[in-house]
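A brief tutorial aside. Many learners find it easier to grasp structure tokens once they have seen a single protein encoded end to end. The record that follows does exactly this for Interleukin-17 receptor C. Read the sequence first, then the structure, and try to relate runs of similar tokens to stretches of the chain.
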Amino acid sequence: MPVPWFLLSLALGRSPMVLSLEKLMGPQDTARCSPGLSCHLWDGDVLCLPGSIVSAPGPVLVPTRLQTELVLRCHQETDCDLCVRVAIHLAVHGHWKEPKDEDEFGRAADPELEEPANAFLQAQVVLSFQAYPTARCVLLEVQVPAALVQPGQSVGSVVFDCFEAALGAEVRLWSYTQPRYQKELNLTQQLPDCKGLEVRDSIQSCWALPWLGVSADGDDVHLVLDVSEEQHFGLSLYWNQIQGPTKPWWHKNLTGPQNITLNHTDLFPCLCIQVWPLEPDSVRTSICPFREDPRAHRNLWRAARLRLLPPQGWQLNAPCSLLAEATLCWQAPGGGPCQSLVPPLSWANVTVNKTLELPLLNAHPNLCVQVSSWEKLQLQQCLWADSLGALKDDMLLVETRGPQDNRSLCALEPSGCTPLFSRASTRAARLGEGLLQDLQSGQCLQLWEDDLRALWACPMDKYVHQRWALVWLACLLLASVLFLLFLFKKDHVKGWLRLLKEDLRAGAAARARAALLLYSAEDSGFERLVGALASALCQLPLRVAVDLWSRRELSAQGPLAWFHAQRRQTLQEGGVVVLLFSPGAVALCHEWLQDGASASAPHGPHDAFAASLSCVLPDFLQGRAPGRYVGAYFDGLLHSEAVPTLFRSVPVFSLPSQLPDFLGTLQGPAAPRPGRLGERAKQVSRALQPALDQVLKAPRDPGGPGDGTRDGT
């Protein structure tokens, strides 16, 4: 991971972000040693060939640490280049042995010497340097008297001056000996640019550089460029990712002083700003000012997406790299927290935008992946819920294996892992013997194992059926008694049934069909139109869910998690998902269909439509959409032919002209007779028309650089 150079300047007093550098005159490379060592720098560069590791014949000198310092190499007082000085700290590796011949001591000062106390140690240390487009390797010979050698202790250091590098470049250093006795040392560092150094008078390429400042004003951020009126320069905003190449976001060529405004929803920790004069071979300066901004980190997690890829892959998509920890967990039906499992998925393996493998033998719908940051749960996704089905009422058994084939079993419950043969008053303890028989007879599914542990999922269907058999018998007996009462007291029962029918009608609203509305947040007028439609549908009755009424949950959970929970609940209850198409929604659909999820930029924190496409599109592509989805668009805002062909596999209605058919499809089998349905359609149309007229009359605003991410608030 690159080390920021500005950390070196924290002790510089009033100007901690500006470094004053030592100047070296002349073009020659040099080397010098600490007292007690002698060293020599070979002329010219050598080939970078580390070779394989060999065993040390005795005590040898090896590099233990690399240390760097920035200096200036100057041809004249005002003609300098940035240069990296490297200090290599050395120590003794190995011990003296009784010599069989002179070669046991390495290269001796005198071949006739036999006592190690009169010998010396010599090492050839290679120092490798890479900074695009430059690559160099130099060879340093170092000697230390054997009498001063203490095995395992440091003997001093050798300093090399110096490797020239470009401003703002990333440099990589390696050091090893020839022959190589251990793994090579390496160091990666990011060099500062003109703004971070006190070099504007020494490096000519910095003379005409535009200077950039960043200031905050409420929710907005201002980029202030202080240049002359006539100067032409380029400005680029990009996402700087450690894992993978940079991603450009916005670029313009500008002239003169500028003040550019960014919305707070556009901020990400890896959002960097690069500016350079429009001249040949000009130096570019870059800053990434939002790395510690809390708003940028909140936006990053809202834009992050956790995807599970069959058969056993998972991927964390985000604009920037994330320091996160991923774990497997077991989600029991009926809610409650997801319980963490072994094996853990180490945070070091959480690589953004890269497919990773889950260490599982078999998949199960109750297995989920959680992504946390600083012990706070950020994302959770269960394994391919669409393909594996709903959560199962299975019992997870944790097997622990000991020596001599000893093993113990416990069942994972909300209270913890309960031993199968304990006296606890839990379901697992009561069914312990039966669960053990199921495991031994092969009725349980093995999910994972290593040398010491294993996970098993055992179905509980038969135990549930046994428990409910007596309940069903009691219900049948009660029904028989009620039927006999009906025969003997027919008139009284009729009156009671009339009252019961009225109660059922009164409670129909509470059991009405669920409908989830998904739309793309075009502007405030379109949101009012969607709100008017949702309010009118609630009077039918329908139980309507829309992100306009759930902003708090949406901000807390994120759009994808909110949509996933609402979609699962709606479909499990036999409801329907309504896709409201608009010009913006159609554009998003085409974007996903052409380039996939990796091509879409992050949207606003409340845009559930953009977040839901990763789950909605597979249903249409795999033919699972009919009966679960309905499409609609508003008259005058969109033509029927604009709806993508893929979504025409389900009914698509024009509103309000096709409201009766639309309402009948929403209510399904519970829809009223045609006359009553027509009256309800007129009521919805009257509620919808004023908001639709306002949207049709309102002008459409084009977006600028500050509108790159739509905000749903």
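Self-check: Residues 274 and 285 are 6 Å apart (CA to CA). If you spotted this yourself, you are ready for the next section.
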